[in-house]
Design goal:
Blueprint lengths: L2 H4 L7 E5 L7 H15 L5 H23 L2 E5 L2 E6 L5 E6 L3 E7 L2 H6 L1 E8 L4 E8 L1 H13 L1
Helix pairs in contact: 2-3
């Protein structure tokens, strides 16, 4: 059972789930491929290839854990965002306390449909979460709940 499902309030329903983008796998995958390419070369650079390969594997493992332990949801009562396994960061803001929600997308984010979401609550809370898949859909789900 997920963090969000375990922490739902009475009569609270999940209306939209967001996910971390698979873009988190790109950098470690490139590092892994670079390590394999360097290993394919003959000579004294094999040690560098092994180091790059191990760094790529470690990066992929970290990205996988981050991908699996990140949860984002809009319910009929609040917005819930949680990232992390050992060091957990979570934000739960009641809909009535949300002033705005911002989406930041660079060129790559617009092309591959990922970006950063920041929920701005009353009292000046500004909590950004990065590399969220389909951030505009998430923002729309929040705005629909705020309007309704």
């Amino acid at each position: 059972m997920s963090y969000i499902d375990r922490n739902l309030l009475t009569n609270e329903q999940i209306l939209h789930r967001g996910y971390l983008s698979r873009i988190v796998f790109v950098s470690p995958s490139l590092l892994l491929l670079l390590g394999l390419a360097v290993l394919a070369l003959d000579g004294d650079v094999a040690v560098i290839g092994v180091i790059l390969l191990l760094a790529g594997v470690a990066g992929l493992l970290g990205a996988f854990i981050r991908y699996k332990t990140s949860e984002f949801a809009v319910t009929n009562k609040r917005v819930i965002m949680k990232v992390g396994l050992i060091r957990r960061t979570s934000v739960e803001i009641v809909l009535s306390k949300i002033e705005s929600i911002t989406v930041d997308q660079g060129i790559a984010g617009r092309i591959f449909n990922f970006g950063s979401i920041a929920v701005v609550g009353t009292g000046g809370t500004h909590d950004p979460f990065h590399r969220i898949a389909a951030p505009l859909q998430f923002r729309r789900a929040v705005q629909e709940q705020l309007a309704g």
